[in-house]
Amino acid sequence: MWRGSMAKSSSAGLSALGARVWNWCDERLALSSIWAIAEKKTVPLHRHTFWYFWGGISLLLFIVQAITGVLLLIYYRPGPEAYDSVRSITYDIQFGWFVRSLHSWAANLMVFAVFVHMFSVAFMKAYRRPREFGWWTGLALMGLVLVFGFSGYLLPWDELSYFATAVGLEIPRSLPGVGALIANIVQGGPEVSTVTVQRFFALHVFVLPLVFMGILGVHLALIMRHGSAVPPSEEARPERERRSIPFFPNFATQDLVMWLICFNVLCVMAFVFPWQLGKPADPLASAPEGIHPEWYFMSQFQVLKVLGEWIPGYLGEILGIGLFTLGGVLWGLLPLYDNTSQSGVRARHATWLALIALIGLLALTIWGYAGL
Amino acid sequence: MNYPVWDVPVLGGAWVIAIIAIIHVLISHFAVGGGLFLPMAERRALAQGRAEWMPLLKRHSRFFLVLTAAAGTVTGVGIWFSIGLGSPAGTSALIHNFVFVWAIEWVFFLVEITAAAVYYYTWDRVSDKLHLAVGWVYAVSSLWTLIIINGILAFMLTPAGAWLDAAGTGDEVRTLWPAFFNAEYWPSLIARALVAISLAGTYALVTVSLLDGAKHGDLKESFARWSSRWVLPGFVLMPIAMGWFVAALPEGAREILALGVGSAGVGAFTQVTRAALYAAVGSATIAPIVLLLVWRDARHLRLSHALAVIGLALLTTGASEMAREMLRKPYVVRGYMYSNGLLEAAVDTPEERMASYLANSPWVRPAEAQAWASPVSSESYQLDRGELMYRGQCMACHTRDGYRSTRRLLASRDRDGIQSILTMLHERPEDSPYNRYMPPLVGTADEIAALGDYLFEDTTVARRAYLKKEGLTEDESVAPAEPEAQD
Prior knowledge:
The complex is a heterodimer of chains A (about 375) and B (about 475). With about 375 residues, chain A is mainly α. Helices cover about 75% and strands about 0% of the residues of chain A. Chain B folds into two domains: about 15-340; about 345-470, Orthogonal Bundle (Cytochrome Bc1 Complex, Chain D, domain 2), CATH 1.10.760. In chain B, α4 (about 130-155) packs across α7.
């Protein structure tokens, strides 16, 4: 009996202490108003709910990037010592290989997750009014993720990263008039060199994270404001038949489970396929046979390669860049074209555009690898 | 010649054993934990008047019976087939030492399977008290199978000093108990019991996830929550059990575990560290995943959720078993028999290692042994001798073109480079990094030269691809530096 009443009074004491701490923080941080928003927010529950997790997965992978990036910063030295510092991280420093593998694999998985998130938003038409700015900030974030990938790829300054960057920078160089100037500014000179490494390092570690977090904040605020969109198949059901769950704690709990599963997948990749380091970059050497960019740039690379073969010279390059730019503009204008659930034929066009974009990207990527 | 040396392309015999064994471990540990889970759940249901639990438990016991009695049995027999083919010398050594221990285990196994079948088929047909008693018979007999097999598995990693002293004398049976209750017996038994208890709760989620949360919400919630608590003991106590396990490891095994701390570079033996690290990550995250899935929203628990957790459990089990097995490198019974069947005592000194391998190999027909051991000038005969050496001493761990491919590992070496590594394996200088995870190479100078010729010939295509990739010619190829010793 006495143990039971002791337990009851100690738990009552803890609750009172907890309440006092909450009130103290609430007075200063307005926690109640945040809680009120979190309590009210719901997430639609239907057979496509699985796709709502991919934004959170992208966020987790960004957090992993940030943490592992800071750890790598401790030992990485940009410039002429870049290769040696990465060699030391990978082969000397305890668990350096693990932090680097996590960082590299999280980068690739993040690009994948962002693409899945983007296409799921497109197919579920979550860009429609009033979520247009969510779409546009999302596209900006995706662009930044690709620039993150491109800039980070050079930093080890090994053979593969040097030639992949040199090949990649041929694209802006081919722009009429301003191409050479842009390439010079990006490279810090007429060619890719250790000066380029220093520039990309500043971009990768300071400029891009600042810009990314700013836009990410806006993106998340818009999601909180507008909530999760309901796909057309759910919109067609009567309101009384639609189900939803509270974001907090129900969906947030499931989100956390997905994060833990995703972290396991990331660790499996890092442990089974630890990232290695190639030979040091040698700008005087010829490019290795079959040099190609990373998989997320492969489709663009293939378009330029094929058009370059069909239409040799300047015109082919301009056409390729033009096609991708046009595609990107159309993609960005999607919310203005297919704006409401009453879009009718426009809705079908938008779905077709998304399908063509997805199949096109996949087919070009596979074609690119097959041609190596 | 294929039999009796088991040539499995790409995977290698060791991986065939590993795949079957990992699946078996995942099922057999569930058999132990689930054997405890079922009577405890039934007793709770009877004590608390939760009649609605009974149909669910009956369904779970059917799933349990099919999985453990069918799949568990088939994979268990599969282990016997695969180890007999992949490591016949090692299997023979274990049978000769533990045949009666195994016989006892099989008696408990027979009782276990019979009890499992009786438990399921007498549901609603006998009294609650009798039914529960059958469940406890299952639980105890299943636990005893773990208690027994654990001794044999742990023995392979840490055979007792007393047994090692008696090994080969014919007097090993007098050291049965020290061999059985060896240094790793208790930490690994506790670790396996914790895994069994965790798996019991995890597998129960599969059954409960099939319930319709809208129609049977309360039942789904109460059962799922009770099942999820079974992962807690493992989550809390496993770090202690694993700490004890690592502390009880021989120094050589601990050194292998440390190899991958500073590097995961190609050429360095770092798989054990990486497998062990993933086992730790998996173990640490499964419990939070299970608890989060059922904490607030057990009614919406789906089969895909439960299967995702089982998938993680499979990965974690695979990683831990892989790490445990590789910690034994280069032995199959540590300090006694190497992975390729050679006895350490027979090849310990340089003089012993210079004896003919082919004349003494159990895998060469006695009538042909002397002929194979004699050098002959014919090139094809030399290559055939080299292949016999390769099959007998290398294929226990290597494949030609798949896992630990000798073609890939030796592609960057010319003939002298290959000979230098074979010499290092044969002479075993103290600072050789290979000593930690490769057995000594045994044979006369001619036999070792034959092996070198065979390996050089076999790596022709891989070497040409390597030279082309590096822009080198045959004359320019250089043997790479040996991997640095990991301290």
